[in-house]
Write a structure and sequence with these properties.
With 426 residues, the chain is of the alpha+beta class. Helix content is 37%, strand content 22%. The chain binds histidyl-adenosine monophosphate (HAM). One of its GO terms (biological process) is histidyl-tRNA aminoacylation.
């Protein structure tokens, strides 16, 4: 039996890969506008990083990591997300020492989670994410949300919903935590095993449980927004005010808790509201993670960021029937007939390409008709034709496919002729 691709992964073939490249370019353009710089970190890290960074009571750490022992006996994990790695690198490379702060980073790369594959959920997926480290200014919370919204809009998406919440600072979170314990404890035996162990370790996670989400205690659970202290409340008010100033519509959802442990204050998600998008509607998630840098061994530094997967972005574009504004065509197809002409075509092609002309020829000894067919299939704008006779006379025939116009051009002028045609000078 032939070997098949692992479950939850996908091949991105020519024809589709151009869409990915287009999205990645857009993301990079927007990061340039907002002054976020690219960072590339390894695809695997010491497992310890994610235990500490993502949190050992999260589903990601408990159930979804690709961890293995390497030949040196170290526990290694394929990164399930990018924030912990970005923070590790920030600390290890002392980026906090750079005079220009906050440190504004972005990344695009594959992440790995052993999840049950379904629409929008892969085991290897590509995240685009940004992280801003070193600022406690609520305007940067609004900035990262605006950046994500801008990216989606620049790609043509319209059916978006920004959902935001505040998880408060440590004091607020602790007060809320206690209220959650008091709320769930008397009836915790009615909940799943996971929730029972979450009760003492991290009761906020109970609100995110998929199995028990219909339990009556879920709807009546104390809301974090009631436990925000004044400082946390003021912070949150400023973030949403900035969003309003930027014209970004949002909904406040006190039940938004996110699946990672490192969040304080702002937490947000961007959802697709397209009909038929499927059951997983979250396109993007992020928030503020004051405390994470210290957890990973660095100086006290606040941070905020988000990540979104290109897979879900593409599905959202499909659901909204958004088209890509690029064409997949070549400039010039070289048809050579006869032995000598075929040999000469190698150099002709090389010269065209050196001049920035996208050029192709036949490599399979095809007949004339089949070569013209290939030129059509590749949507060549020009077809250059010559045989041994023309080669001896030093001329080629150039056909402009759109108009059908045909001209005889000398060999030495071919590159200039096509360049000028292409740029509209001729
Ligand atoms: P997350 O919510 O775990 O957050 O993931 C962020 C986004 O990654 C999701 O909204 C979704 O678009 C995509 N995603 C996650 N899992 C999958 C999957 N199995 N298949 C396809 N797409 C997926 C984080 O990863 C945080 N590091 C975000 C962050 C950055 N917070 C602060 N900075």
């Amino acid at each position: 039996m032939s070997i098949q691709i692992p479950r939850g992964t996908q091949d991105i073939l020519p024809g589709t890969v151009e869409k990915w490249q287009y999205i990645e370019e857009k993301a990079k353009e927007i990061c340039k506008l907002y002054n976020y710089k690219e960072i590339r970190t390894p695809m695997f890290e010491h497992t310890e990083l994610f235990l500490r960074g993502v949190g050992d009571t999260t589903d990601i750490v408990q159930k979804e990591m690709y961890s293995f022992e390497d030949r040196g006996g170290r526990s290694i994990t394929l990164r399930p997300e990018g924030t912990a790695s970005a923070v590790r690198s920030f600390v290890e490379n002392k980026l906090y020492g750079n005079p220009q702060q906050p440190t504004k980073l972005f990344y695009i790369g594959p992440m790995f989670r052993y999840e049950r594959p379904q629409a929008g959920r892969f085991r290897q997926f590509v995240q685009f994410g940004v992280e801003a480290l070193g600022s406690n200014d609520p305007s940067i919370d609004a900035e990262v949300i605006a950046l994500a919204v801008d990216l989606y809009k620049s790609l043509g998406l319209k059916n978006l919903k920004v959902v935001i919440n505040s998880l408060g600072d440590k004091e607020s979170r602790d007060a809320h935590r206690q209220a959650l314990v008091n709320h769930f404890k008397p009836r915790i035996t009615e909940f799943c095993g996971d929730c029972q162990s979450r009760l003492e370790k991290n009761p906020l996670r109970i609100l995110d449980c998929k199995k028990d989400r219909d339990h009556e205690l879920m709807g009546t659970a104390p809301s974090i927004l009631e436990y925000l202290n004044d400082e946390s409340k003021q912070y949150f008010d400023k973030v949403v005010k900035f969003l309003s100033d930027l014209g970004i519509q949002y909904e406040i959802d006190a039940n938004l808790v996110r699946g990672l442990d490192y969040y304080y204050h702002t937490a947000f998600e961007i959802m697709s509201t397209s009909e038929g998008f499927g059951s997983i509607t979250t396109l993007c998630g992020g928030g503020r993670y004051n405390g994470l840098v210290q957890e990973i061994g660095g100086p006290e530094t606040p941070g905020i960021g988000f990540a979104l997967s290109i897979e879900r972005l593409l599905s959202a574009m499909e659901a909204e029937n958004v088209s890509f504004p690029f064409e997949d065509k070549i400039d010039c197809y070289v048809v050579a007939l006869g032995e000598e002409a075929k040999e000469a075509s190698v150099k002709v092609l090389y010269d065209l390409r050196k001049a920035g002309i996208v050029a192709e020829k036949d490599y399979q000894d095809k007949k004339l008709k089949a070569q013209f067919k290939a030129a059509d299939r590749l949507q060549a704008s020009y077809t250059v034709v010559f045989g041994d006779d023309e080669l001896n006379k030093g001329v080629v025939s150039v056909k402009t496919m759109e108009t059908g116009e045909q001209e005889e051009v000398s060999f030495s002028e071919l590159v200039t002729y096509i360049s000028e045609k292409k740029s509209g000078e001729r």
